[in-house]
Design goal:
Length: 182
């Protein structure tokens, strides 16, 4: 499969591309490119990459685009990024940070990193590290006093290499699955 790489200037991006650190872009292999999620990324395999994390139900392109637009309408809250294989114009990595505004710490903000995914054929090339670095850079540069994430015990060494420290514990209560939620 060969496709022409689509430059950022031709895309409808979730947020301005200049929030992704230029020095980080320079550290990537020339065959890949990191940028904000675009409204056309459904067709570039966004959900396929996320499927390395868990079961992904495909809502269809119209619903995916509606979710993209809903995220964009919450200004200064959602920062989803992707890594694109320039030779195929397909997504090979993805991640996001969302910003929680708080009443603590002088009305501070916390960045929550979520959904770090790298295509199985691209793992071991430091793409996950670059995604984490890009999201942490965004979080810190928009003023978050900390950036946090949840991970499995097996991923702790990776995140420690990225500069994170194990702190506290996560608790979760999942909502019951009902036919109306499917």
């Amino acid at each position: 499969m060969s496709a022409k790489f689509t430059p950022d200037s031709s895309l409808d991006l979730l947020f301005p591309a200049d929030l992704v650190a230029p020095e980080l872009k320079a550290q990537l292999h020339p065959d890949v490119h990191i940028r904000p999620l675009a409204s056309s990324d459904y067709r570039r395999g966004h959900l396929d990459v996320l499927s390395v994390l868990t079961v992904v139900t495909d809502p269809g392109e119209a619903a995916w685009v509606a979710q993209f637009n809903a995220m964009r309408s919450a200004a200064s809250t959602y920062y989803a990024i992707v890594i694109i294989d320039r030779t195929t114009d397909r997504i090979v990595g993805a991640g996001s940070v969302f910003i929680e505004r708080k009443f603590l710490r002088g009305l501070g903000s916390v960045g929550h990193i979520e959904d770090i995914a790298v295509d199985k054929n691209q793992q071991g090339k430091k793409l996950g590290l670059r995604i984490i670095q890009a999201l942490t850079h965004i979080s810190e540069n928009i003023g978050c006093y900390k950036t946090i994430l949840n991970c499995s015990d097996s991923n702790i060494p990776f995140y420690e290499k990225c500069g994170f420290q194990k702190r506290e514990n996560e608790m979760a209560k999942y909502a019951p699955t009902s036919p109306s939620r499917l």
